[in-house]
TrEMBL record:
Pfam families: adh_short_C2 (PF13561). It comes from Hoeflea ulvae. Belongs to the short-chain dehydrogenases/reductases (SDR) family. This is SDR family oxidoreductase. InterPro entries: NAD(P)-bd_dom_sf, SDR_fam. Keywords: Oxidoreductase. The keyword Transferase does not apply.
Length: 253
């Protein structure tokens, strides 16, 4: 049988692309998402659960099902996340900050917390966290998101240290701007905050990338499948950007 793979936030975007790519590689997949409509649009062959990745009870139930259905887990893709508010730090509401941290960081923590005992018992496994190039460079007007994504990298490096002796690897993928509705919304909100147009914001983002291009969800999914493969058997504790090389995280046009 193929790998047993969990993808949180797997109903759309990067998460769904990951699930599709792992499934095409022969894996069994379980996807979680808060969006029931998105899950309803996923293939019937996938296991699906609706819930919040930052809710301990939900994640406990997810891993109980994994234990019952599969008896173990090979790959956990902690991908669930939200963009958080777009505003100067002094204008960010503390509750919005906390929610962004909870979904992104606490969700990754809970996935690792419940995966670790299973993976230790089998002395193998891969944990992949979807961070961001905002977790490497920072991101003006996005302090909650950048804070969460930097923290995810600290979590990942600690997991690599704690779990490495058990044959378990942990890495973070740091996408740049990923084509799709989510980045479109970010661009629109930033344009509003700066009093300019979405077209100029998009052009500025592209100008700050060496390859002058956004990436796709498939680009990120391809990296996830590679990092979970035997070809990456000694790749652990690493942050792998998939961003076309970000030169300037806050380009001006």
């Amino acid at each position: 049988m193929g790998k047993r793979v969990l993808i949180t936030g797997g109903g759309s975007g990067i998460g769904k692309a990951m699930a599709e790519t792992f499934a095409a590689d022969g894996a069994r997949v379980l996807v979680t998402d808060m969006d029931q409509v998105a899950l309803d649009g996923c293939p019937g062959s996938w296991l699906k659960m609706t819930g919040d990745a930052s809710d301990p009870e939900h994640m406990r139930a997810v891993f109980a099902r994994i234990s019952d259905e599969w008896g173990g887990i090979d790959v956990v893709c902690s991908n669930a996340g939200i963009a958080g508010p777009t505003a100067l730090v002094e204008d960010v509401d503390i509750e919005d900050f906390r929610r962004c941290i909870a979904v992104n960081l606490e969700g990754a923590f809970l996935a690792a917390k419940y995966a670790a005992p299973m993976m230790k018992a089998q002395k193998s496994g891969v944990i992949l966290i979807t961070s961001s190039n905002a977790g490497i460079n920072g991101f003006p007007n996005r302090s909650p998101y950048a804070s969460a994504k930097w923290a995810e990298i600290g979590l990942m490096k600690t997991l690599a240290m704690e779990l490495g002796p058990y044959g378990i690897r942990a890495n973070a993928i740091a996408p740049g701007c990923v084509e799709g509705p989510r980045i479109d919304g970010v661009i629109e909100r930033e344009a509003g905050a700066k009093g300019t147009t979405p077209e100029l914001i998009r052009a500025g983002y592209e100008a700050g990338v060496s390859m002058r291009s956004f990436v796709t969800a498939q680009d990120v999914a391809n990296m996830a499948v590679f990092l979970a493969s035997e070809g990456a058997r000694l790749v652990s504790g690493q942050v792998i950007p998939v961003d076309g090389h970000t030169e300037n995280p806050d380009p001006k046009v």
